[in-house]
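Re-running Fumarylacetoacetase to confirm reproducibility after the cluster update. Everything else is unchanged from the original entry.
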Amino acid sequence: MATHGSWLDIPKGSHFSLANIPFRIITTSPSAEKHAAVAIGDHVLDLHEFARHQGFVEDFASAHIATFSQPTLNDFAALGQDVHAKVRKYLQNIFAKERPFPGVLRGNIETRRASLFRRDQVTMHLPMKIGGYTDFFAGKNHAYNCGCIFRGPAKALQPNYLHLPVAYNSRASSVVLSGTDVCRPLGQFLDTPSTTESSFGPCRRLDIELELGALLCKGNKLGKPINVNEAERHIFGCVLLNDWSARDTQAWEAVPLGSFNAKTFATTISPWVVLKDALEPFHAPGVLNDTKLHPYLQEARGENVYDIDLEVEMTSNLSGCPPFIGIPMLTRAHSSNQW
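Result of re-run:
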């Protein structure tokens, strides 16, 4: 039964509707080589096999198709947003009920058998090789709530917060796929606010933060800034991001330079990359900032944030663990994000 405007069965409420078409790197039972893929409903289309069986009938250069055979999405991302949008639109047409290319997939049994899999039949891998990772302290409400933990409500927001982007460069090598077990980190911490001698041991205040991670498709030359109104052109797509934090260690080590071991032991990201093009309908105005920004930070576009509903589910099978904000923490925590 076809649903959501597609000839393919898409369960009601699926995050992988025809309007999404997120990208991913997978391996399958027939092939241990990593290939690019897209999700649609409960299925995954292996783009390498799809292209190999002449699934692309539009004018896609051979160099573009070759990127689907790479073990990461970096080469495909580097082609730029115009190519990303064109590929996504073509794949939407392939799966659409009223499709312009009826024989490419639905009517081609050989191609379907070789390239279309159920999601439980594939293994998912980190979508891109992460060369650098910057963690932004984004969101005024989030910054205030986090500041209350360390400095109290009166000094929650630092004086610079409303004037410039606040961020730090984190550890790219510890970015892992969602579903990876995360070991409770060891570190120093103060047992009580009045304690002067630190203790060492497993983190007792393990915390997570649901965030949106942006993967870039192009950079800039060293010393050449990117105009704020051109910044969006550098985004490949977004993933769900779980920012793990050892809050007790962070409170002790973050003076004066900031987080180190407390924030670099793990960052998990979801397996699917939602393209920038797919997020365009969700643009919305941001939180009002009464502070006058310097010209280099003034965006012409007023709707410069996304209005997206996200949620967190946490499962714990251990009792008696020291709580943080009311949540029992695991010695080994398990993160599972999907989009």
